[in-house]
Amino acid sequence: MLLQRFLIRLLTMAITLFGVAVVVFVVIRVAPGDPIAMMLPPGATDADIARLRALYGLDKTIVQQFFIWLSGVVRGDFGTSISLRQDVLGLVFNRLPATLELATVALVMAVAIGGTAAILGARERGTAVEAGIDIASGTALSIPDFLWGLVLILLFGVLIPVFDISGRVSPQLDLPFITQFYLVESMLRLRFDLTWDLLKHMLMPAVALALPLAAIIAQLLKQSLKEVLDLDYVVLARVKGFSETQVILREALKNAALPTLTLVGVQFTFLIGGTVIVERLFSYEGLGNMAIDAVINRDLPLIQGIVLVFALLFVLINLAVDMMYALLNPRLRHG
Amino acid sequence: MDEARIARRGVGPRLWLAGGWLLLALLAAIFAPLIAPQDPLAQDLMLERLPPFWLDGTEPGYWLGTDSLGRDLLSRLIFGGRIAFIVAFAAALAACLVGSALGLIAGYFGGWADRIISRVVDIWMAFPPVLFAILLVAVLGTGLSSVIIAIAVIDWTRFCRVIRAEAMGQSRMDYVENARIAGYGRIGIMLREVLPNVVPSIVALLSLEMGIAVIVEAILSFVNLSISTDDPTWGGIIAEGRLSIHQAWWVLVFPLITLILTVLSFSQFGEALKARFDPVLR
């Protein structure tokens, strides 16, 4: 049952990725404007242009180009970036860890903020506290991450300048890192001075990304908790003398969390999508920021590689959530 | 029942506040040449980075101050509203038409139509939307129609997903079966029976989508990919403000407030409309 579900998901995942590859490829190739012409100095001859076009495979038909590219991708060869003249996969792997760290920190914050608000709101249901949480989460949800980022820049970058508003790490620091997972590595090396510097750069973009998701968690989890709190076994726990907070944390939470968990998975992909513009806003050196540069420079191989990696990330998260749901949901587990 | 009453009671002031702001901003945009105190493009290096009116060192007629080229901020915001509203209405409407039609077909007919449309939606959902928008505008070339097309191409899935689910639910209802027994054709039932019942959701989504379109346009002009760089846009002013944030905070603050009010108003307006239309809540 579970294995069958997994295999079906794997198949649809492959179809989705193939579809993404086709769409990106077609969209990029219908672009007017020649990326090769932009690479060459003004005095280049037609022969130079033709040679370079052949070098990047741009002289073949679109269908041929697609399958040449796809057969490369399957072997892990995403081609060479036109603007940076480096291996696309290497460039992507160099930047991906920065984005993953940012997205993960944002996710943790969203769960912490949203979860706390939900528990507080469920405990104080029917009071002004709950109404306040509803208004706050409604507002947080209506304002997108791009605007939150700008608000945070103004508040904590300019008005009260406590955090850094651009970059991933202070440029004057000597970095001993061998991987690109700076945050993780700084903690493993016990270099907490570097951890702090990284966090000071990461905090505001992470909060901007986290707020809308935190609002969704607050709303949905609070609703589920309130439903569960009226059930018999919870009432029984209350009769036994547990405090309301204990009842929520020990009894209600684990039964109310499943719908929220599913939603968080889907919303996490939206959060990752949001990193593109938030990274740009904070000049954070991640994959999204590089993607915008790639588009501006018409760097076709790099754009294709980045979009495909994002898509892969999205479908993997959906797969993980689906599997987690199947494992945690008793009806599916024993079905 | 209680919740319905609360939602109903909340409709009044929310609808009026949100609608009021949108109307004000829309009228200002339409009558921009008459209202704007200055030429939004006029540069004057003698007047660069004037602060807003309540601070020292201002000039009369420059209410919200000027940017680093001495251009009047208020006039630029008023003219920027034109682009924002055109994009909001056109892009949201286009996304709505495509998405609702496909969602209705997928939800009501099911079967192969549903499978194909849902697969396409899945593929679309695997794209980071902002990157997709930037890519499309880069491909189509900057310009107003490119921005509108890009937003519609990306966001039709929002309508499609919701309307598909609703149409699916509606098509299982008794009244649809009754219509079929009464001899109506499938397309007739879809348009005459199912469509009116999903209209409240469409209207709410449409208002929400207008807010999203305003944001996407701002993001595109923020990365300098929206329309030509001459015309003022809210995102373009924000990009300028982000650069001179330590010298002239007002260049970022005022467009940001404008954008936040507009987006909040569109979403509140949509919620309120939905509550008013919804037969269950009414």
From TrEMBL, chain A:
Residues 96-325 form the ABC transmembrane type-1 domain. The keyword Transmembrane applies. It is a multi-pass membrane protein. Keywords: Cell membrane, Membrane, Transmembrane, Transmembrane helix, Transport. The chain crosses the membrane at residues 7-31, 102-122, 143-163, 202-221, 256-282, 302-328. It is found in: Cell membrane. One of its GO terms (cellular component) is plasma membrane. InterPro entries: BPD_transp_1_N, MetI-like, MetI-like_sf. GO terms for molecular function: dipeptide transmembrane transporter activity. The keyword Cell membrane applies. Belongs to the binding-protein-dependent transport system permease family. This is Binding-protein-dependent transport systems inner membrane component.
Automatic annotation (TrEMBL), chain B:
The keyword Transport applies. Pfam families: BPD_transp_1, OppC_N. Residues 81-270 form the ABC transmembrane type-1 domain. Keywords: Cell membrane, Membrane, Peptide transport, Protein transport, Transmembrane, Transmembrane helix, Transport. The chain crosses the membrane at residues 15-36, 83-110, 130-154, 202-227, 247-266. It is a multi-pass membrane protein. SUPFAM superfamilies: MetI-like. InterPro entries: BP-dependent_transpt_permease, MetI-like, MetI-like_sf, OppC_N. GO terms for biological process: peptide transport; protein transport; transmembrane transport. The keyword Translocase does not apply. GO terms for cellular component: plasma membrane. It is found in: Cell membrane. Gene3D superfamilies: MetI-like. Belongs to the binding-protein-dependent transport system permease family. This is Binding-protein-dependent transport systems inner membrane component. It comes from Mesorhizobium amorphae CCNWGS0123.
